Amino acid sequence: MRLILLGPPGAGKGTQATRVAERFEVPHIATGDLLRQIVAQETDLGREAKRYMDAGKLVPDGVVLQMLRDRLSQPDAQKGFLLDGFPRNRVQAEALDVMLAEVGHDIDAVVSIRVPDQEIIERISGRRSCPVCKRVYHTVSNPPANDGICDDDDAELVQREDDKPDVVQERLDVFHRQTAPLIEFYGDRELIRTIDGVGEVDEVSDRIAEALEGAGVS
Ligand code: ADP
Ligand code: AMP
Prior knowledge:
Blueprint lengths: L1 E5 L6 H12 L3 E3 H10 L3 H11 L6 H12 L8 E4 L5 H13 L6 E6 L2 H10 E3 L6 E3 L26 H15 L1 H7 L4 E5 L4 H14 L4
Parallel strand pairs: 1-3, 1-4, 2-3, 4-7
Antiparallel strand pairs: 5-6
Helix pairs in contact: 1-9, 2-3, 4-5, 6-7
The structure holds adenosine-5'-diphosphate and adenosine monophosphate.
């Protein structure tokens, strides 16, 4: 099972990907998470990536493609994967096709999650995450039991640097300019299913399950 979740930042890709990956027993591969791991290592590469991320820009394709190639070559990704946050432009989408063709595979389905910009801004401004277990919350729609504290490990929740308002607009612009054209790219190959990402998390999960069924993935 080789799946892609496409959508603007804050669309709920990570929230939904956890569920889909569990259901299909494939690894959830989020390039944003992989990049944040590299940044945490404080190497030259990490510092370079951080500059782009803090500005809301895409990290250069060369860095992201090498990182993804390494991740896809891991044993757990041989049976399939769910990509979240990749590809984000045409160069990456074409490179992914080449990588998969080299091992005789193809993408099975792409689910595009549609959420209006205004809702995105509300979601991102309320997003908080646990620095220890990475669980994602929302101050209003999905708060922890105790304000600002992770339910699972009592760590203090943090706001991502790039979730601050001035960067969010740039990330949305980058999505519309560079990532949204991939809807057509995959649409031309009849791989895409578009779903409404507004509603309860469970409702959105049901729509994704239905879309995957419609794409012959179940
Ligand atoms: P992405 O991975 O696409 O950037 P996330 O899964 O991190 O998005 O979700 C962004 C924020 O929106 C988080 O704070 C999350 O708790 C919240 N969220 C996710 N799905 C929904 C939903 N269906 N309705 C309201 N808020 C949501
Ligand atoms: P995300 O966690 O998906 O919101 O990604 C956070 C940031 O990481 C983005 O704003 C980009 O700077 C960077 N990033 C994540 N995935 C990619 C990608 N596929 N290509 C380029 N940059 C990426």
